[in-house]
Amino acid sequence: MCGKLLGFGDYEQTTSNYFAKCEKFLADMDLVVPWLALIKLIEPHYPKTGSMGGRPPYPVATILRMHRLQQ
What we know:
Layout: H1 8-15, H2 21-32, H3 35-42, H4 60-70
Helix pairs in contact: 3-4
């Protein structure tokens, strides 16, 4: 019945057209870097879950983006 009350920060975030520097940088990276081609190149060599179980590896796209953004 009762909706969540919005604070000032929530209101600013939903009504603002301002993009933070990091959001602009990430959008530019999506335009410049050929993510799908790199993922296809890396995926055959990326570890899969073994027969003994264990913790599953992170998705290839996530790891690739983290390493590229660190550089």
